Amino acid sequence: AQSVTQLDSQVPVFEEAPVELRCNYSSSVSVYLFWYVQYPNQGLQLLLKYLSGSTLVESINGFEAEFNKSQTSFHLRKPSVHISDTAEYFCAVTLTTSGTYKYIFGTGTRLKVLA
Amino acid sequence: DAGVIQSPRHEVTEMGQEVTLRCKPISGHNSLFWYRQTMMRGLELLIYFNNNVPIDDSGMPEDRFSAKMPNASFSTLKIQPSEPRDSAVYFCASTSTPTSSYEQYFGPGTRLTVT
Prior knowledge:
Helix content of chain A is 0%, strand content 56%. Chain A is mainly beta. In chain A, strands 2, 5, 6, 10, 11 and 12 form a 6-stranded mixed sheet that branches. In chain A, a hairpin with a 5-residue loop joins strand 5 and strand 6. Chain A starts with a strand and ends with a strand. In chain B, strand 5 and strand 6 form a beta hairpin. Chains A and B meet through strand 6, strand 10 and strand 11 of A and strand 5 of B.
């Protein structure tokens, strides 16, 4: 069975410091991997995804994640965070069924950026 | 495009009452997902539809919950009778399948409080 583990439920970090949010998955088949962000009182938005090709993927606002097949990880990083990055971040993998697919989400990591 | 539309945005009801949550997916999308988010359990997939047909309802907590998708532009999630433990934020998401992007688009959510 596929599953996603986000070990850190909360990560406090000072503004302009680097951050890494960890995500590990278990799957017996090839997967697609995603990071979604949820700002307070909003729905989830796609931040970045890995489908194939380069194992390092980037978002438009400076986040990046690297797919590591041997370690079954897809950690999210940013070299310098801003107050506006305060949000909850969800890692997800896909599970395909009969030509459709669904996500398996992790439990989320709350990133709190401190001034 | 207006994005995924959910109504109501907030619902407060008394235990035992029927609650109906509504979702309008993005035009052209043929897959629709209902999620529930709580502090204790995180983000849970309740049910998803493809071409208006329920594909997987294994996440529906019990018979008090039911979901329908009578056409491609409308879906409902009904709880009857409601209980305090149903208090949560309910999200609807839509996407196109088959797809090359695997991106789901989330609505703003309905915050349900059952007293």
